[in-house]
Amino acid sequence: MKDQTIIQEITLNISAEKVWGALTDPDKMKDWYFDVQNYSLEQFNEFYFYEPNGTNFKHVCRILEIMPQKRIRYTWKYPDYSDGISVVSWQLSTVKKNVTHVKLTHSGVENFADAGSDLSRDNFVAGWKEIVNKALPAYLKKQMVG
Q: pLDDT tens digits for 78-114?
């Protein structure tokens, strides 16, 4: 099966500490990402969420790695629709003071081929573009002003 890894990158004029908070604090996450349930920033913690647009896809994730203000990796699966498992990684790099490069990598998307077109690579690409390039920067900009 062909590797269908998705990578989205953006450089933001904000500290890695604040980006990390947006990526790992469930109260902040629900403002721009997803309203995650059963979340705690601990290795092997399993959490879940549904998309806010009304789809009933239950996303189940398990934290694999935590490197504070640098990287968080977790599994990403849809147990009600597919046997596949993928991995999402958020990596932060400080470019200079208050400038952070964010790299989102979602590998294993091809493992959802058994779930049909709703979980196609194109749909993931569109979703991650919206999250990384619009939702996250808009949320962080709002935090800087507020």
A: 999 999 999 999 999 999 999 999 999 999 999 999 9
Q: Tell me, what CATH number does 44's domain have?
A: 3.30.530.20
CA distances 30 to 44, 139, 145, Å, are: 21, 10, 19
What's the rounded Cα separation, in Å, for the pair 45 and 134?
Answer: 28
| Dihedral angle computed from the Cα positions of residues 87, 64, 17 and 93, in that order, rounded to the nearest 10 degrees | -60
CA-CA-CA-CA torsion for 88, 119, 31, 95, nearest 10 degrees? Answer: 40
Is residue 145's pLDDT more than 80?
Answer: no
The answer as to whether 61 is a domain residue is: yes
What is the rounded CA–CA span in Å between residue 62 and residue 17? 22
- How far CA 62 is from CA of 37, 74, 76, 92, in Å, comes to 12, 5, 7, 20
Question: Structural domain tally of the chain?
Answer: 1
- Residue 62 covered by a domain: yes
3-state DSSP call for residue 88? Answer: strand
Whether residue 1 lies inside any domain: the answer is: no
